[in-house]
Amino acid sequence: RLVSDWSSDVCSSDLGNVLRKGNVSRASLRKGALTLLVLAGIALLVCLGVWVLGRPAGRVTPGGEAVAAGHGLAAKPEVSAGQVAAPDEGDLEGDTRGGRPAFALPANQAGLLRVLGDRSAKTEVRCAAADKLRQLGARESAGLLLEILQDKSEPLSLRYKAARAVGVAGDESAEAVLASLAAEPGTDRHLRVVSVLALGNFGDSNALNALAQAERDPDSLIRFKAVQALEKKDNVAGREIVEKALGDTDIYVQARAIQTLGKIGGQPAVRTIDGVLQTTESDFIRIACLTALGNSSGPEAVAILSRYENNTNQLLSVNARAALQRVKQ
C-alpha cells in the first residue's frame, strides 16, 4: 500500500516537471524511505529465521562439548592415539583440561614412575606424570627425575618439570645438580631459572652459597629469581643475601628484594625496609616498601605505615592505607 500510494503521488504530478526539476513532494520521499526500511527489516527477519532453523538441536556445555537434545551428558571423546595405557583400570586418575578428559595417569607412585620413564609416551603425558610426582614429594622419584634433568636429549619442557619436582623431593644429591645448572651460562635460560627456584627448597649452606652466586649473575632475571627463592619466612641466613640485592643495578631486582624481606619478616627486615623507604627517591621502590611492610606484622610495621597514611603523595598514601588494612587483618 505504501508503494502504491507513493507511486500514485509521483504519477499524479506533472511528469515533465519531475523529469526536468526533480520536484517530488517531501511526503512522497518520506513514504519511499519508510518503504525501504520496512523491506530491509523483513529481509533481516528472514535471514535470522533461516539461521535459527539451520542450527543443530541441542546445547553446548561450558567445556565446549555439544550435547544432544534430551540428553544431559556430553559424548565421551575418543581416546587419542599414543595414550599411555594404565596397568589397572581401577588405579587411574584422569587428567582433565577444559572439562574434558585428556589422558589418564596412574594414581600410584610406581605407575607414575613407569610413565615418566617411558620414552615412547607423549611428552605432555610424561610432564603430567612429573607434576604428579612433585605433588607427592616422594624421595623415591628423585633418581629418575635427576636422570631426566641431566639428559640433554630429553625434551626441555620435561627437564623443566623434572627440576621443579626434584627440588620438592628434597634429595641431597639433587642439590649439586641444580646448583651446577643454575650457575652454567650456556644452559637454557628457563632451565636455569627453574633450577634457581628449586634451590630455594633446600635450607643448607650449599644451597645458600649457590643462591648467593646466582644473585651475582650477569643475567638480571637469574638475580631476580635467586632473591625470590629466598623468601621463606624467618630465613635469617638468606636475609644477608637479599639485603645485598637492594643495591642491584636493576630496579626490579631491588623491588623483588624488598618484597622478599617482607616475606621473611622480623624486626631486622622491617628496619631495613624502613631505611630504604626513607632514603630512596623512587616512588616505585617506595611503593614496593609499603607493600612489603603490609606483608609483615607487628607494631613497628604499623607505625611506619601510619607515617605515610596521609602523605601528600597520593600514590604513597593509597598504598600505605591498603598495607595497613592487610597488617590489621
Please give a structural write-up:
By secondary structure, this protein is mainly α. The chain contains 17 helices and 4 strands. A two-stranded antiparallel sheet has the order 1-2. Strands 3-4 form a two-stranded antiparallel sheet. Strand 3 (92-97) and strand 4 (100-106) form a beta hairpin. The chain is flat. Residues 1-7, 9-22 and 55-97 have low confidence and may be disordered.
Helix content: 55-70%
Alpha-carbon distance between the two ends:
74 Å
Q: How many β-strands, per DSSP?
A: 4
The structural class is: mainly alpha
As residue ranges, the low-confidence spans are 1-7, 9-22, 55-97
Rg, Cα atoms, Å: 34 Å
Mean pLDDT: 79
Strands in their spatial order, largest beta sheet? 1-2
Order of helices and strands: HHHEEEEHHHHHHHHHHHHHH
Shape summary: flat
Strand content: 5-15%
Task: Describe the largest sheet.
Answer: 2 strands, antiparallel
The number of distinct helices, counting runs of at least 4 residues, comes to 17
